[in-house]
């Protein structure tokens, strides 16, 4: 609303919600929008403010869909008429307009939700799973679900909102788009590429003709018709729409509150679809990707799209780089190597590789920190208890400096030319290591998708931990900064599928950097 006021004050012309959103970006009043459909959010916010506050509202309507500032009513309209449609003529003075109340669509739409005590029986996995239709039907059986205001559902962790997520394909082609910089419910998704179209299943999708699945298929078609301008509607025959499975994602706050039903929409009329057309401002850079011909960088895509690429388009995954070397120089001579990554990413396996095969001297930062904290290291101290103590320490005034100093004291005293440090989780600690180390400092970041991290951690710990408990550890406060270490990395190792291919990637990585030569020299 602040942005709307500033835009209207600058242009001094009644404007549509879409224009307010776009001009807010263009005029530099806002960098990004935290909304999946910002023009709808803008329309809803202004409408509610006018309805609630009446003449006390800063805003007025001058006609259906046009908003203006109340204090400008007595001033002549001076803005550029180019912002009006060609069919309109700019009036000299704005006049208030009273909009007719609408019963639907309500800005407080009611979303289909599944309570935790029901869904935990079916959603005992992380990532994508091809659940049988019978299981899906049990997940959303009418006696166990409810429709609640979406604004309320976004704050509840004991329910999952049901979404549809539709892949649009034609033969070996997959339709992709890029999320607008002002479009998304989570900041980390802004500007990312995506291959899933869809949104919330609402009570309005549940009709007499969509009773069997509580309107899920109907919602998929409706959302597809809104996001793409190709004549798709809830009345479109669903014979082109195939159910594929379910995405359950406990790796983030956003994922924890949603479950996605995945469909494939097979395009038949290529002539009409060869040049795809968007239906909403939130859909940008629509592009067909040929999985046999085009190069695809999975890191450009948001996590749910990565899951679908990995589940349905194996050639794309097989063509992904297993590592990326950004700077070779830090690995050239004697150096201290920092290995970073999230819990379960494979950083410990990478450290073992550098230690056992490339003859690095290992320093375990967790053991160094345990000595500083005067606690037994993990697993003698539970990970949850250790994380809490580590968070208190690392956020203290001199915590990062003290840890970096302790690590470098050990490394500087060693006669080994190459030292590897496992488990650094904070950029500030890494900066102090660079300051205190007598050797050059190189850093490697191990990148793994959350579902891969969960599987690797469960295998390493030899117990089947529920995904929700694993991601409580994964997202603990002390772990949150580690994701930013990728920005400082001299090399990135990608763990796309698990241990076997990962070991081969480590071997190729060591070979390209000539690290085996240094290991042979030490043995000789």
Distance between the termini: 71 Å
* Count of runs of 4 or more consecutive helical residues: 20
Proportion of residues in extended strands: 15-25%
Helix fraction?
A: 25-40%
Overall number of strands: 17
General shape: globular
The average pLDDT score comes to 87
Biggest beta-sheet profile: 9 strands, mixed
Radius of gyration: 27 Å
Which runs of at least 5 residues are low in confidence (pLDDT < 50)? 102-106, 182-190
Q: Structural class, judged by helices and strands?
A: alpha/beta
Give a written overview of the molecule.
This protein is an alpha/beta fold and 524 residues long. 35% of the residues lie in helices and 19% in strands. The protein is built from 20 helices and 17 strands. The chain has helices at 2-11, 17-26, 38-53, 116-119, 133-139, 150-153, 216-227, 253-256, 270-273, 303-312, 314-318, 347-356, 365-373, 383-394, 399-413, 427-436, 450-461, 467-474, 499-512, 515-523, and strands spanning 59-63, 66-69, 110-115, 127-129, 146-149, 159-170, 173-179, 193-194, 241-248, 258-266, 283-290, 323-325, 335-341, 361-364, 418-422, 440-448, 491-495. Strands 3, 4, 5, 6, 7, 8, 9, 10 and 11 form a nine-stranded mixed sheet that branches. A hairpin with a 2-residue loop joins strand 1 and strand 2. Helix 15 (399-413) packs across helix 16. The longest helix is centred in the first third of the chain and has 16 residues, at 38-53. The N and C termini lie far apart (71 Å). Residues 102-106 and 182-190 have low confidence and may be disordered.
